[in-house]
Design goal:
The complex is a heterodimer. By secondary structure, chain A is mainly alpha-helical. Chain A is built from four helices and no strands. In chain B, the strands form three sheets. Chain B has a three-stranded antiparallel sheet, with no helix packed on it. In chain B, strands 1-2 form a two-stranded antiparallel ribbon. The longest helix of chain B has 20 residues. Classes of the chains: A mainly alpha, B mainly alpha.
C-alpha cells in the first residue's frame, strides 16, 4: 500500500512539474510571438522611414498605434519567474537574463520610456516622413533600453 | 668588486651578453611619444567637433561612471543629479540625454586579468582635469601615460593612433565641458608578466602601427572618411576582429568577427559578429540597412541591438547622417571574409 502511495505521489509531483515546465515554455513562446508582432509593425514603419517602401501616412499611423497597443498590453503572464536563460526551463530557448526579474524599478522605468516614445510616435508617424524617421530613432532607443541590459547575446 | 680574473671566461661572455640583451630590450621597450608641443600649439580647437568625436569614439561605453558608484560620487561633489542633463542640439524634440559622467570604474575581465576603466572626467584631483593637450594627445596617439608609462591596449589607442591631432584635441576640449567626477582610479588586477608595463614596449614594436588596415587602390572620399572613422576613432575592429594569444588584432581577419575570451574560464567566449559583407556577416544588409541600424539600432528584420552594441548605437545615433553613411560605405567596400569556422 505504501509503495502505491509513493508511486502516486511521484506521479502527481511529476505531472505538476511537467505542467509548470509546459507553462513556462508556453510563456516563452508567447513572448517571442509578442516580439514578432513588434517587429512586424516596426517593419511597416521602418521600411518607410528608410525609403524601402513608399511613405503612407495612414499605414504609418496604424503601425505606430499597434506598437503602442502592444506596449500597453498587460503581458506579465509571459514573464513568469523561472523563465530566464539561466533557469532549467529557459536554457537554450530564451535569451532573457535573470536580471530582468531582479532589477526593479529599472525594468519598469525602461518600459515607461518605451511607452512614452511610442505615445509620441503614434501621434507623429502620420505627419510626414521626417517625423516618422525621428520617431523611429526614439523608439529604437526605447527598445534598446531593455535589450541592452536584459537580453543575452546569440550563442 | 667585479674581478674578471676570478671569473671563468664563458661566464664573463654570458654576463656580457646578458647585459647587452637586457640593455637592448630596455631600449626597445622604452615609451615613445609621437606628438610634440609644437604640433599641439598649431591647433585651434572646435568643441562641437569634439562632441561629435565623443560619440564616434563612444568614450562613455567604457568610462561612464558605474551606476553603483554614482550616489557616493555625487555626495562628494557639488554636482546635483538634476544638473547632469542636457538637451541635445541635434534633435531638440528628443528626450534629453544625460551628460556623460566619465568617472570610470567599469571592470573588464580578460585572459590577462581585470582592467578597470579610469576616470577621464575633468576632475583635477582624480580625473584628467590637469592634463595638458600634449599629454592627452600622447595618451591617445602614442599610448603613453602622463607619467611616461605604456598604456595597456585595453585602452584602444591602437586605433586612436590613426586619429588626426585636430580631432584628438577637439575631443579633449569637449571632455573638459563634462561634469567633474571625483573618483579615485583603481589599479588594474593583472598577473605577471602582464603587470610589468615596460613589456608593452616590445608588444608595441610588434603590433602597434598607424598604418591603414585596408589598402584601397582608388577610393571615393566617402569610403575614405568611413575608413578613418572605423579604423581610427570608432575603433570597431577592437571587438569585431579576432585577437591572437598576445591580445593583438589579427589583421588578416579584419572585421570578420571574433570569439572574445572573457577570462572567466578558458571555454567562455563572447561571439562578436562578422561585419564584412560575407553571408555570415552583412551580406543581406543594404547600405540603407547599415545606416538605419547605426541610427536606430534596428536590424533589417527589426530586431534591436542588445548588450554592448546597444551602447554603441546610443553613440552612433548621435553622429551625423554623413558619417553613418561613410561607415556603411566603408563596410561595403572592405574585403569580404568568411567566419573562421567556415
Amino acid at each position: 500500500m505504501k509503495t502505491i502511495k509513493y508511486i502516486m505521489m511521484l506521479f502527481i509531483t511529476s505531472l505538476a512539474l511537467n505542467s509548470v515546465a509546459a507553462s513556462i515554455e508556453k510563456s516563452i513562446e508567447a513572448r517571442q510571438s509578442y516580439m514578432k508582432l513588434y517587429a512586424f509593425n516596426l517593419g511597416i514603419a521602418g521600411d518607410m522611414a528608410k525609403g524601402k517602401s513608399e511613405y503612407n501616412a495612414e499605414q504609418a499611423k496604424n503601425a505606430a498605434k499597434n506598437l503602442l497597443s502592444l506596449a500597453m498590453m498587460n503581458n506579465a503572464a509571459m514573464w513568469p519567474e523561472g523563465s530566464s536563460n539561466q533557469d532549467e526551463e529557459g536554457k537554450g530557448i530564451t535569451r532573457a537574463k535573470p536580471a530582468l526579474w531582479s532589477t526593479y524599478p529599472e525594468v519598469i522605468n525602461k518600459h515607461k520610456n518605451l511607452v512614452t516614445a511610442l505615445e509620441r510616435f503614434s501621434l507623429l508617424a502620420g505627419d510626414g516622413i521626417e517625423s516618422l524617421q525621428k520617431g523611429m530613432k526614439s523608439v529604437g532607443r526605447g527598445c534598446g533600453g531593455c535589450h541592452k541590459q536584459f537580453r543575452a547575446k546569440n550563442k | 668588486m667585479f674581478n674578471s680574473k676570478k671569473m671563468p671566461r664563458p661566464l664573463i661572455y654570458l654576463s656580457l651578453m646578458g647585459v647587452i640583451i637586457g640593455s637592448l630590450l630596455w631600449w626597445l621597450s622604452a615609451p615613445q611619444t609621437l606628438i610634440t608641443q609644437q604640433q599641439v600649439n598649431s591647433i585651434k580647437v572646435d568643441i562641437n567637433n569634439g562632441k561629435h568625436l565623443f560619440y564616434i569614439g563612444g568614450c562613455s561605453s567604457c568610462h561612464q561612471l558605474v551606476p553603483a558608484l554614482l550616489k557616493d560620487t555625487l555626495s562628494n561633489s557639488p554636482l546635483k543629479e538634476t544638473s547632469l542633463k542636457e538637451t541635445p542640439s541635434i534633435d531638440s524634440e528628443e528626450a534629453p540625454i544625460p551628460l556623460a559622467q566619465l568617472g570610470g570604474g567599469k571592470r573588464f575581465t580578460t585572459p590577462f586579468g581585470t582592467f578597470i576603466a579610469p576616470n577621464i572626467s575633468p576632475d583635477k584631483a582624480t580625473g584628467i582635469g590637469n592634463w595638458s593637450d600634449l599629454t592627452f594627445a600622447n595618451a591617445l596617439i602614442s599610448g603613453v601615460s602622463p607619467s611616461g608609462e605604456h598604456y595597456y591596449p585595453a585602452f584602444p589607442y591602437t586605433s586612436y593612433t590613426r586619429m588626426q591631432l585636430q580631432d584628438v584635441l577637439d575631443l579633449k576640449a569637449y571632455l573638459n565641458t563634462l561634469p567633474a567626477i571625483n573618483r579615485q582610479n583603481e589599479a588594474h588586477q593583472l598577473s605577471l608578466p602582464f603587470s610589468i608595463r615596460r613589456t608593452l614596449g616590445l608588444w608595441k614594436r610588434l603590433f602597434f602601427s598607424k598604418e591603414a588596415l585596408v589598402k584601397f587602390d582608388n577610393v571615393s572620399p566617402i569610403v575614405k572618411r568611413g575608413q578613418y572613422l572605423v579604423e581610427g576613432p570608432g575603433h570597431c575592429g577592437e571587438c569585431h576582429t579576432q585577437r591572437n594569444k598576445l591580445g593583438a588584432l589579427n589583421k588578416q581577419r579584419w572585421l570578420a568577427g571574433a570569439a572574445l575570451e572573457t577570462g572567466n574560464n578558458e571555454a567562455e567566449t563572447i561571439e562578436v559578429p562578422n561585419i564584412t559583407h560575407d553571408e555570415s556577416g552583412l551580406r543581406d544588409w543594404s547600405e540603407g540597412d547599415i545606416i538605419n541600424y547605426l541610427e536606430t539600432g534596428f536590424t533589417p528584420e527589426y530586431d534591436v541591438a542588445g548588450e554592448v552594441m546597444a551602447e554603441v548605437i546610443e553613440n552612433t545615433s548621435q553622429i551625423s547622417d554623413e558619417d553613418r553613411a561613410a561607415i556603411a560605405a566603408y563596410l561595403l567596400a572592405i574585403p569580404v571574409l568568411l567566419n573562421p569556422e567556415e
